[in-house]
Structures are given as structure tokens and as C-alpha cells.
Design goal:
268 residues; mainly alpha; single chain; disordered N terminus
């Protein structure tokens, strides 16, 4: 159970996922300079639209870059916390359980000579009965009877100590099970995050492809084509940024789960 819970913790919090999806598309300095020249030479109405769309696009790109940075920061924080929680799970009551196990072992070792003596006397009693020697039977029986109570007390002492050890192990397993139940909440988060990452990758490819169309139009000094492409580019960037914000929210939810788990396992 303990090993299963530790594996579940790693799977639940790590997720094996990259930190971000497609990075925001970037326009080269050459394209930016060509666009500035194109907008400066366009008729006022077209130039205004070009600059407005371009500003919208660049602002959205900045929002997406910030979202990417935040996604990484939250993910790294979750990873650090996962490592700490994993360590605490391994260490929880480890010293206490090790001490109880040692006590059980040492107690058995101390009582073993008594058990060995009791076994040997019972064997002697059995032999005496086989020989039908009343004197031997009487002596062996008396010796066996004398050790019955000490042996019984010794066995009860060992049983109590073993029960204490088993109880401590059971309590630890039950506690870690509760932690595992909290961590299981990340399963649905991971599925949603995976779907959003696929969407982000698709949106990023659209923006990247459209940025090439826009760059080509700018190089050709095609104001109409650049405006049409820039309109599509701005819309695609908005979609991509919106997806990144949803991924960020999911990362924050995963962090919240990790923090709840950590709160259940205070550092010892």
C-alpha cells in the first residue's frame, strides 16, 4: 500500500507533462521594420487599421508570453512541493516504526531462551511419559508448570508490542490513503490540461503559419493583404493566449491540490 501511494503521488503531481505548449510566434526585426515602413506609406485609414491590429497582436503576444512564464513558475513550484511531499510520505512515522520494530525484535530475542527452555522441558516430559517413569514425569511436569505462567506472560508481552507496531503501520497506511485520495483529484486536472495543451499546440501552429503569410505580405508591401492577414493573426493570437490562460488555471489547481496534500503531511 505504501509503495502504491508513493507511486500514485509521483504520477498524480508530476504528470509527465512539458511546462508549456507552443511558444508565442515572434516576428523578426526585419519584418517589424518592413511593417513600420508599410504602415507609414499606407493611406491614413488603412494605416490606422494596420497599427491597431498590430498593437492588438503584440499586446496579445505579450500576454501569452507572460502566461507561458507563469505556467512554468507554477509548474516548478508544484514540482518542488511534490518532491517535499514525497519525502514527507516516506519519512512519516519512519523513526517511530523503526523503533517499534526494533523493540519487537529485541523483546523476542530476550524471551527466546525462556521459550527454548520451555520447549526442552516439554520434550523431556514427553520422553518421561514414554518411559513411564513416575519420578521423571513428576519432575518434568513440575518444571513445565513452573514456566507456564512466565511463558504465557512473555508471549502476551510480545503480542502487545507486535500489536502496537501493527497499529502504527496501519495508522500510517490509513493516513497516507487519505493523502492519496486528495491527490487523486489531479487525475481530472491532468486530463483537462492534456486536452488544452493539444488545443494550444494547434492554435500555435495556426498563428505560426499565419505569421508567415503576414511576413510575406509585408515584404511585398501589400497593405491590403497584410491587413487581412494581421486581422486573422490577431484573432489566432487571442485564441492561443486564452488557451494558455486556461492551462495556467489548471496548473494553479494542481498546485492547490499539492498544497492541500502538503498541509496533511507537516514536516517532522
Amino acid at each position: 500500500m505504501k509503495r502504491f501511494l508513493l507511486c500514485a503521488l509521483v504520477a498524480a503531481l508530476a504528470g509527465g507533462l512539458p511546462l508549456s505548449a507552443e511558444a508565442a510566434a515572434e516576428l523578426t526585426p526585419t519584418v517589424q521594420a518592413a511593417f513600420a515602413k508599410l504602415a507609414a506609406g499606407a493611406e491614413p485609414q488603412t494605416a490606422g487599421k494596420l497599427r491597431a491590429r498590430y498593437q492588438e497582436f503584440t499586446q496579445t503576444q505579450e500576454e501569452e508570453r507572460k502566461a507561458d512564464a507563469d505556467i512554468k513558475a507554477v509548474h516548478y513550484k508544484t514540482e518542488d512541493l511534490r518532491i517535499a511531499v514525497n519525502k514527507r510520505m516516506k519519512e512519516r512515522d519512519a523513526a517511530k516504526l523503526a523503533a517499534l520494530e526494533k523493540q519487537v525484535k529485541e523483546l523476542k530475542e530476550r524471551r527466546q531462551p525462556l521459550f527454548d527452555t520451555y520447549t526442552r522441558l516439554n520434550q523431556q516430559l514427553s520422553i518421561a511419559r514414554t518411559l513411564k517413569s513416575k519420578a521423571a514425569i513428576s519432575l518434568a511436569q513440575a518444571q513445565v508448570d513452573a514456566l507456564k505462567v512466565p511463558v504465557q506472560l512473555a508471549k502476551e508481552e510480545i503480542r502487545r508490542k507486535e500489536d502496537e507496531w501493527r497499529k502504527a503501520k496501519a495508522e500510517k497506511s490509513a493516513y497516507l490513503k487519505k493523502v492519496g485520495e486528495v491527490l487523486a483529484e489531479t487525475d481530472s486536472i491532468a486530463l483537462k490540461r492534456k486536452a488544452e495543451r493539444s488545443s494550444a499546440a494547434a492554435a500555435g501552429k495556426i498563428v505560426t503559419a499565419e505569421s508567415k503569410v503576414f511576413s510575406a505580405a509585408v515584404r511585398k508591401a501589400d497593405a491590403s493583404g497584410a491587413l487581412a492577414s494581421l486581422t486573422r493573426l490577431a484573432a489566432g493570437a487571442r485564441d492561443s493566449a486564452a488557451i494558455k490562460l486556461r492551462i495556467l488555471e489548471l496548473e494553479r489547481k494542481a498546485l492547490a491540490v499539492a498544497e492541500r496534500a502538503a498541509a496533511m503531511l507537516p514536516a517532522q
